[in-house]
Fold:
Amino acid sequence: MNRRATLRPSLVALIAISAAIPARSVLVAQEKEGANAATACLRRTEIRSTKVLDARNVLVTTRDRSTYRSELAKQCPGLRRGSTMALTYSDNKLCAGSLFTVMMRAGASSNATSVAAPGSNTPIAIQGPGLMPGAVCQLGVFTPINADEIDALLAATDSEQRSRRRTDRDAIKTEAVQKAPPSSP
Structure:
């Protein structure tokens, strides 16, 4: 048997394995980088409260009174200060990238259903849920934030909300105009 013939397949296998090892280590490094970028997970049992500041900022306070800011990648439709959110937990953790649903308040007239009472044709209004699901959005990375930063963020979101309100300068002004007398023929 030719020695070259037996070395060639083992040499090809060795080259293939040595090429795969760096590729595998690059994949592992990329997975670790991805995990590090989204490692800011909070355990469900540690979360004390959430507070929506505006369409892009959510504060999460933990039981040890640490506060984290989650800045959303883009504005979430219908999310504003005081909004209610339905959070989605994965493995009892809330992580960057977790989805949440904005819960919209439903007025009494928009969430009542009329049904006929059993045994009669008398209509009865049954009250529906007070909250209805709205937009589904994604949380950003949780960044620790101190009291001074929270105050600055609150002030910034307050000024944005004030600037969006209509003022006297935005009002349409009307003036009385006298009608011109008809011209004689």
